[in-house]
Predict the structure.
Amino acid sequence: MIRQIIYREILENLLSLRFSLSLLLAISLFAAAGFVFAAKYRQESQDYWKDTNENLSSLSEQTNRLCDVARYQQTVYRKPKSLALCTEGFEKYFPNSFRFNVFSMYIPQVRRQGNFDLGRFSDIDLGFITSLILSFIALIFTYDTICGEKEAGTLRLMLASSIHRHKILLGKYIGVMLTLGIPLLLGLLVNLLIVISSRDVIISSGDWLKIFTIILLSLLFLSIFVLLGMFVSSRTAHSANSMVILLLVWVGLVILIPSFGRIISDAACESPTQAELQRRLAEVDKQNLDDAASGKFGKNAGSFGSNIVENPPGTARLVNARTEARNQVYEDHLNKMMAPLIFGRYYTRFSPTVLYQCASEAIAGTGITRFKSLYQQVKRYQQDLKEYVRGKDAEDPESLHLLCDHGQAISKWGVISKKPVSFDSVPKFQEQDLALGQSLKLAIWDIGLLVLFNLVFFAASFVSFLRYDVR
Amino acid sequence: MVWNIAKKEFLLNLMTFKFAVGTIVCVVLITVFMPILVGDYQQRLKDYNENVAANEAELRKVKVYKNITPTVYRPPNVLSVFSEGLEKQLSKSAKVELGGVPEISMASGVSNPFLSAFPTLDVMLIVKVVMSILALLVAYDTISGERERGTLRLVLANRTARHEVLLGKLLAGLVTLIIPVTSAFIIGLLILQFFPMVSLAGADWIRIGLIYLASLIFISAMYNIGLLFSCLMSRSSISLVLGLFIWVVFVVVIPNGSVYLANYLRPTESREKMAAQVKALMQERNNKIDDLTKTLRTGGSQAGAFGAFGNYFILMCEKPLMDDYRKKYTLSEPVRIKYADKIFELQQQYLDRLIKQKYLAHTIAQISPVTLYESLMSALTGTDLANFEHFRNRVKLHTDEAIEYIRSKTESFSSPAYFTPGKEADHLAMVKEMDRIEKTHADKFFEEVKKWYDQKLEQTPSLSLRDLPQFICGPESLASTLSRSISRVMLLLFINALFFTLSFVAFLKYDVR
């Protein structure tokens, strides 16, 4: 019996105007998104390789002396990601270049920033289409599932035969989900075909698995709206009223609550300013100088001259203490910059849209999670490079083996080896994507909450429908 | 007859569930949003006042004309609570200095890039989203709903002409929609008045009035769109679905999609390229100055200190060195001024390209009344790029004025007052003092010298800068705002007229059975 209900529901939906409209809208959006994404990806890849090659060739020029390799300020750029076609996660606004040398890591900067005049906008990608368009379509499909049939009088007829109410509800749910899957899957298929045929974007097998996961996630997200629609539909007697309520709920969940994030974060955390950063750096430097004056690093640390006894180990301690303290200041500043975003996102999680956004960003490896992981990876690479320099330095008997970022100490005393190294042996940065399992682990709470939303709305619609007055 | 129909329709609308819910939601949202938004504005205003005060205090410490490098701040815009626009994205301050140009975008670090991941929140969002939905909901069943109920037949069976029916419906719908818009505005303004730091000038009230009018025109455009679908379809549920699809395209797809497309169709060159050009110009300037002044000495017996705005200046120096400095500044400062103008020109070209891209996005988006309304609002509230350009030009003007002031005070940079407060006698006193200290306190030489310097620095009087031109940057004049917004208002009115005409044509052919 349930099969018949599903079948009927699907047929009815397929023939409706709303289905053809949503199919048209979804496919045209996905197709446009495909073309724009391919072009954008090509441009970004060109920029990325140009910048990266520039960086590597400058690094190779430094290999005549090991100390230059250690002190050279490399810049690592964010690589364009093919999975950004699923969800871009506002990466275009985030810092995308990381400058560092073996000793220090600076604040990541935004390079090749777009037109700030255009204001904030979302890229049209799977995440955008699902969270803003398809969720809306889900409501349009379901606002009259129960009360519409009541108005048409068919609900009475159906319940007059020996079908259980839960079967009707389940049948309708499955029917709507299947019809809703058509614009999503067909659109995405068109999108992927366009992107792949452009030959710029290569999607690996791991990526395919992630895309599949994101599709499942999208369906999970859409199912919340389907259940919400059925719930409201079985609470109201008129489909017009049901539509009004659903629209306002949709506006709240999809448009208003995500905007609250800014307000919440503004109230809770303060964005650090550049002036504050400079002030803290100056403080740290002063502290360092005071420590040096009080003899914390040894006698004559940091002093050069012919009439005093120089103290290379002391100077190295002094310089390293300062570098360390400054690094800490930079990292604190960056964390403070990210804090509002993380905080605002955290407290708007009662909206399924935010949950879906966070989860799909985590799985696709874009957005703020990507930024954090990239930053950690660059730091790890920095440590690797330091170990490499330390190892090479140990081989040189002329060096004092005191790694520190101080030009005069290097040129005068040779605290780091000045021997050439081969460029091939210098480690190079390579960004590692998280495996699906790890990204799922990051998103597990979001997914759990999405499932919870589903269960709550299912239970609610079930109870309401059981008590529904079909007259 | 029109009035009768309008009255009936209006009373019917008032009793509906959608009207009640929509109005309550609008009012609640505005009561929740407004205090948050105004609180945010107050915070920005406080920061601004603090910054200006700090700048004034620093200006009082200036001892030489060369060091007049104040920072001017862009006052926060109170109307940004209505439409945020670019208010928070663009740089809030600019340094006024000889040879410098105002920064043109949010320089990285000035504002937090991570915050861009949040959508903006302002009063316009409520009008744009909630009220436009309400307009569609009120409109969707005006004709098709009456047909379904069978009342349309009865109405047309009388002598009432069809255009009267439609006009009555339009009037009733507009009056119905004015209620939530007006109550939201009144409540919002009451809350705004409640905050002590907010003061609205006369021009602000005019702007608020215009914002209110623009909102009404926009809402009426959305109503007319709903009316058209109601006249096109025989079933109200279908006209609702169609209307909602159009709504989602207007509100969600076109505003994002047009920008996305404009980025793709007309990519702008990166800021880095422009920055590199600026850097090259700076290099060229420095080379030129080096060439001009290479015969002049910069070393010699002198003493310097850090003064106002963290700038270094020469406290005193020997006579020949002073003469060389005078020659140097007379030669170099005109070059720096000339190159500052060149850089300003270059940045202006870059800005123009950005505006062209924006214009393209705007042209693509003009099919949606929502984007039209958005750009109209940011123009009226003074948060769009044109207003930022206005600020930038004011800064440039102020810089020119300040330079002119310095020039007049220092005989075209040739007077010693430009770079040092010290006279020749001061230097002689210094030499004498050094000799004395070296003889008497040879063991504590540096401490003693430092003490003497500090004392000398304290004794040096600050410049009296009462007649230094003040930086005043009000918002752009109302007239130029109006001249920019008039075309958009016209377009919105045209959309109104177009959709009403279309609905009229559709209704004339409408099958009332």
Remarks:
- The first strand of chain B starts at residue 71 and ends at 73.
